[in-house]
PYEATS domain-containing protein
Amino acid sequence: MFQNQKKISLLLILAIGVFPTYGQKIYSYVFCHTNDKDLAIPAEVNFAKVSVLFSNIAQSLPKYEYIPRSLTATGFNEKDVIAMLEKDKFGADDIVLFYINTHGKNNRWGNEALFPVVTVPSNLLPSYNFFATLYKRRPKLCIAIIEACNGFGDKDDFQIRQEAFVTEEYSQQQTESIEMLNLRTTSNLSQLVREPISIIVTGGPPGMETYALGNGSIFTNAFIKAFNETLLTTDQKKANWRTLLERSKELTLNRTQSDVFRDKHYPVWQIYKNGGVSQTVKDSSARFTELSIDTQKKVKWPFQRTQWYKISLTVNSGKTVDSVQYFLDHTMPNPIVTVKNADQKFLYSFTVWGQYPIKAKVYFRDGSIEETFNDIRFRKGPSKI
């Protein structure tokens, strides 16, 4: 009997050694779709490159269990995408990597929005919805990359009328070798994944088109190059997501300076930290710029099913402000609004029923520009966030 117990114990020890246990997970989602035959190869190259990049990241973080997900044009629609994101039970210690490549356009009214509406088979969907689905679960690290134009507001024919051309099998054949991460780079990678942060980044600013060549999209290549540069840097202060994104912006702009490209596009992003939207304050002095949000619950009549709220935005700053540009949700009829009423602290009010982040782009009299963020959050009665 005791010999059998010893054998069982030995087998358990061997099993633990052979099959490591994971307390943390990396979930990756790579979705590619196009109904434009001319963009089939770039989309497939993007699919392959990003899949390899995410896999390399996971291999260099062995304490994480890697759970890759991928969908291509013939295998997903809006319902499938959201269902997949909702199904995975990632938590506060996990990492989520998300990438989608497809056609993009302005919001459904044709107006400019901070992040594009993307063509998902059988539907048009604000790309921010994907990020919101992930972000509300509050993983330790969440990176969502939207490789799509933020234009094409007048081209509804991209919705999904034609045959879809991207296939996962062909994408795998297009894989170009990406330098595998090694021990020399894992310290920087560990620093990147240590910070609890969530980022959504798209390849182009509102109203602009982005471009792709035979070796993939301009921004996707710039992001991968900037990522590898960040891992190889010997300056620990530069091993952070903000520096990485700024470098990808620089590389994208450098590549699109040619007359071949109509728009010299560049990536735009929002950074969230510690359960809320982090402020980006570029003023080097002690003075700072702040976006304040007041919420007021409106009267709900018996026949109403939805509770509405009046939202009032204001901006305070230690510097003299000339104007403020507010970036609202994609679903708003006018998601980008400019105000110049300095005597009212650049007050702008509107009515909503949903909670989402707000960006304020502040233009100062001295010509400088700052960006700051805050969240709409509903509370009982009036509240200031």
